[in-house]
Structures are given as C-alpha cells and as structure tokens.
Amino acid sequence: xxxxxxxxxxxxxxxxxxxxxxxxxxxxxxxxxxxxxxxxxxxxxxxxxxxxxxxxxxxxxxxxxxxxxxxxxxxxxxxxxxxxxxxxxxxxxxxxxxxxxxxxxxxxxxxxxxxxxxxxxxxxxxxxxxxxxxxxxxxxxxxxxxxxxxxxxxxxxxxxxxxxxxxxxxxxxxxxxxxxxxxxxxxxxxxxxxxxxxxxxxxxxxxxxxxxxxxxxxxxxxxxxxxxxxxxxxxxxxxxxxxxxxxxxxxxxxxxxxxxxxxxxxxxxxxxxxxxxxxxxxxxxxxxxxxxxxxxxxxxxxxxxxxxxxxxxxxxxxxxxxxxxxxxxxxxxxxxxxxxxxxxxxxxxxxxxxxxxxxxxxxxxxxxxxxxxxxxxxxxxxxxxxxxxxxxxxxxxxxxxxxxxxxxxxxxxxxxxxxxxxxxxxxxxxxxxxxxxxxxxxxxxxxxxxxxxxxxxxxxxxxxxxxxxxxxxxxxxxxxxxxxxxxxxxxxxxxxxxxxxxxxxxxxxxxxxxxxxxxxxxxxxxxx
Length: 528
What we know:
By secondary structure, the chain is of the alpha/beta class.
C-alpha cells in the first residue's frame, strides 16, 4: 500500500514541478510583485488552470476495484499530463538568479509538505481518496502555491535586499567623497537611449560606468554598484525606471545623483500608475532627490516636463529638438536616410555642429540631452562633434541593420510608447526600400487610453506601411479595427498568434530590398 501511495505522490510531484517552474517564470516576469502576479493570473485563467489537470481524479474510479488499479490509473494520467504539458517557445526563459534558487528550494519543501499531508491519515480507509484528491488539487493550483511561496520568502528577501542596497549606497557615498559624479536619468521613454549617448560622449574624457541594458530598478542599480563600481570610475550613469509611486525616490536616495535628466512624461505604465498625475509625481522624484547643488536637464518638447522645469528651484537647463526657447536647441536640421545633420545652440551662444547616423526626431532629442550633460561636464564641443559621427543606439531601440539577404531591419523591439512608435514608423517610411513591413503587437500598460492610442497607431501605420503583421489576435483588436476603418487591404494584413508565427510568415514574403520594422516585443506574460 505504501508503494502504491508513493508512486502516486512521486508522479504528482513531477507534474507539479513542471507547472511550478512555469509559474516561477511568470512571477519573475512580473518582477516578483504579488499584486502584478495575481492580476496576471486573474487575466490568464486558461494558462493557470488547465481543465485537463483534473484528469487524475479518474483514479478514484479505480478504488471501486482496489488501490492497485487506482494507482495505475492515477500514475498513468499524471504521466500523460507530464508528456502533454504545453511546450511553448519562450522569448525570455526563467533566469536562475539567487532569488529564484531560493524560491525553488521553498517550492520543493512546500510541495513535499503538501503532498505529505494525506499520509497522516494512512491508516484510514479513505486514505487513497484523500491522496488522489489532494495530489490533483495541488497540481491544479500550482500557480497559487508559487504565490504562497513568494509570500513566505518575502521577509527574507527584503532583509537580503536591504543589506545589498545599504552596501551599494555606502559604496557610492564613499566614492563620491573622492570625486565620483552620479547622473540619474528617468522618463516614460528615451531614458535608455539618452543614457547610452551620454556614456559615449563622456567615456573619451572620463572613466565611466553605466547601468547596462534595462538595469533600472533598485535591485538592478544595486547589483551594478556592488559588482562593477570601482574607485577608478569618475562618472556613474544610472537609469531609473518606475512602475509605482516611490520607485524613483528609492533609486534617487540610493544613487545620490548630482545631475538629473528627465526625458519625458507620458502614459507609459499608466495601467500600474493609475493616472498621468501619478506618473508626473513619480518621475519628479528624480528632481526631489537631486543634490541641493545639483543640476537638472528637462525635455522642453514634452509639455509636462516643461511645466516641471518651471517649478523646480534647483539649477536647471532645458533642451529641445526644435524650439529655440529652450536652453539647448536644434537648428539647421537636415535628415536623410543616411543620417542627420544639425546645429546644437548652447546657453552661452556657442554652436556645436553635429553629423550623425542617427535617424528620427526622438533620437536627435535624446542626443541633444546627452550633449547638454556633456557640456556641463566640460567635454569640448569639437570632441562632441567628432564622437557624434560614430554614435550607436542602444540595443533594440531604433537599431538599423542589414541582413545578408539584403533586407533592412529597424529593430525597435524593446519597448513601445505613443511617441516612439510613431517615430519608428516615420523612419520606416523614410528609409529607401521596396515593401515596407511592420511587425507589432501594439502598445501595452497604457491604462484606459490603451485602446484609443493603439487605434490611432493603427491608422498611422496604414498610411505608411505596405504590409502589416500583427502579433496576438486579441491584443491587436484596436489596430485591426483601425485598419478595417481605413480599408487597409486584407491581403496585406496577417494576424499571428505569437511572434514566432508572425516572423515565420514574414520570412516567406521578404525579398532583397525590403524594409521591416519590429515595433515592440511583448514578454511571455502576454502570449495568447
């Protein structure tokens, strides 16, 4: 009897483990935040609880004959579920961080405890009924078990994180006493590109360190500071992202920046922030935490940021890609498919001539911000002019590449927002080529405005694209509606279930001389 029971528990645990690992991936993609994870679970019930998960309950029928038959049926059904579990190709698999390893250990312990509970009643006649029922329920509710695991681990994680954050803060503070300059950058969009441009303009004169990729959370900046920051560094450039009020304040207190750059304020993350006013308050935390003798740079072309500049009492400059009322502004702009040429006018009346391969007004704006910061730190104007010729964009942010097959790729896959998506389509239209393809799932996390903004994007895309591939039938409904309303040719539209199907379809159509824009690439949590 004990052998029969253990066979049921072992196969149940095997299926539970596979489901738990998938649940951990979703928890990680939701930044380990319980409120976001539970929201994702409520919106994706079909991915969380499979009807097939109750199949092992048919093992109860075997008990009408004897426990051995029940065991065979139950084990066979759990084995079948293991074999037939969804094997979805993942864009971002579970990263085996130290935190994930701790979560896995707790999951294994909790899973064993839950599956062991029925053995307390081993002597009871109804033991096998309880065992099969309990094993099935645990597997059916594996995503909820992971939520419980995260709750159990949270006090330990907070203590561990607090220690790491304090270590990083003390390290930065000590290095600042020896002359380290810290630059903090935030905004609804443009912050990563601006960070990369600042780093490239400063790195020839200073020993710089910037947070890589999108390491823009408290833990991300902490990790970079503890692992990479050394006494040799003269400038530390920290990107600061936010999903909730208080996030930038926490980052600002950690980084202790003397230079702040506010790139934009818009509806990005409106879903989690709740209102545009909350986004404004959160982004302005960068200025609130700025050193008293620090300096702030504001994007004059963004109305909300411009208003922020008017109320700040700290030393500040504004920058613009078009408005001469800003302290740093662009004039004599000439854009072609090969790049951009313009003049940056500075507050003291001097002019910096710039020639760059960068395309699009948004890239130019971000470069002007970088030039303003470099000017503050004493980089010679002639040196900036020379460096601008070789500037590169951040990965997956309006990167332009050419394949061996002669296809031009505009890779803007990392993120998407109303301003950036329109700018990317403008670049697609500008670049010379045959068929102009757009591959996109649209924009997300825009709250109540999401439908309307995607609808407007769809109309704009219809005017400038020859062939459109949409990712996600449900996700792209507003874009589909916009395309239908303007009578976009149905034979030039393909709606794919996921990115892999959409890209495979593109490969069947693409020819030398074509141009494709990859606009936004949603994480696995958005797979339909």
